[in-house]
Structure formats: structure tokens, C-alpha cells
Amino acid sequence: MNRVVVGFDFSSGSAYAVDLAIDVANRWQSDIRLVYVKEKKEDEAPIRAEIERRIDAVGHLLAGIKLEYTVREGNPADQLVEQVKADNAALLVVGTHGMSGMKKSLLGRNSYRTIEQSPAPVLIVREDFNFHKRLESVVVPIDSSDDTRQKVAQAALFAKNFGATIHLLGLYTSTVADVRRIVNGYVGFVQRYLDKAEVSYVTKFVEVKGNVTSATLDYANSIGADLITIMTEQESRLTSLIMGTYAQQMINESKIPVLTVRPQKVLADTANY
Predict the structure, then answer these.
(1) What distance in Å separates the CA atoms of residue 271 and residue 255, rounded to the nearest whole number?
(2) The pTM is what?
């Protein structure tokens, strides 16, 4: 598969992102590129020396793949997206202390801009997650939006590579019968896709009372989930106007790693549902 790109800034959050990226890339047999975005007046020589030292320290974890790095300059969000495009990357991995100015918390304007613009899925990890636990359960929320199923191919890829079970979470956000039928139909499509892909799954439907993010996280926490897969856009609701987009809310509140997938007009992997 194509390269895995990792946003890196020497923080503990970005270090965890590297560890997780190595695990994923080993399974995909993809090379890894670390990307450090420096400030204009920042001396590049010590940056490169420290990155090379850290690469040497994790070299024994690489299973037949390469770990390289690039130092760029400019806006962190723009530079990460440009590197993803240049590498035709399959995945961008960032830690919660590794994108907003490369000196501040991930949870800022730059992070959302990166997630929204990245052509590759973005895996966001927090340093307080238990990384010693195997990836066993992947939560995939399904609502009535047109693009809700587009995340499934990526979720299935992770589940298959890690031997995990997908937890399909049907979200009833309305009492209107037609809306609920759409959710039921989408869940049925996904079930058939996963059957064909030979991916293990379980299905749960929940009534959403006000906040889609809370409903998703409540379920994910109740099963001890290891990954939540979402779209960068979700159903438009009043809570989104008040609290930010679904993706923003999820990234702010979830201690569980979140995989975000950008909606596409055509998704070949799921066209045959």
C-alpha cells in the first residue's frame, strides 16, 4: 500500500502517533514518512539530528519497511496536507499534541483544517489511550446522511488487518419513519458489504437524544472500543451549530483513537453494496 505519513513535533502525543503508525504500516507493508513543520527562524540542523536519533531508537520495530522523514516550513495544516498529496499517502496519523503550530495541542483550528483537507483518512490518537491493548473493536456509526457508508471500507481494512470486530451503530436521530428506514437500509447495505469482505461485526441501534457525539461515545466507551471511524461531515443538527461539527466534537471529547474519512463523490470500494 501507499506510504503512511505522520505529523511529528517531539511531543509525547506525536511519539505515540509514530508507535501506532509503525504497527499499522507493518501490517500494510507501507513505508512511513515523519513530517516536522518548522518555524521560519528555527534551526534545522538540531531538528534533523534529533529526528534521526529517534528513528534509530525505533528501527528494531520495523518489519521490512522504511521510516524516513521530511522537514517542511509553513502552515502546519497546509504542509501536512501537501505531503499527503505528494506521497499519495494511504493514511495520515497525528497525535493530540502534534499539529496546531506543531507546538500546541492538536485540538485547534489547524487540526480541523488538516482533517477537512486531507485526501487520505486521518487517524487521531491521544497520549492517554491504552496503547498496550490490542485493537479488537472498531465502532462505525451509521446515520441517515448520504455519505455515511463511505467510512466502511476503511473501517473494514483496519478490522481485517488487526483481526478486530466492527460494531455497527445505527443512529436514530429522528422519529420520522422515512428517516429511520434510511438508517435501517444503510445498516443492511453495510452488513452485506462486511459479509462479502468476511469481516466480523455486531449491530446495535440507539435512539439519539440531542447529541450524536455523546451517543456514539457512550456506546464506544461501554464496549471498551479501540477505534471510532467517522466522516469529516455528518448529519447537520442544532448541536453542531452550538458545539462545532460532529468531527470536531468527536476529536475534542474522545479518548479513543478516531479515524476520519473525507466524503468523496464516488467511492469504488463501496459502490457494490
Answers:
(1) 32
(2) 0.88
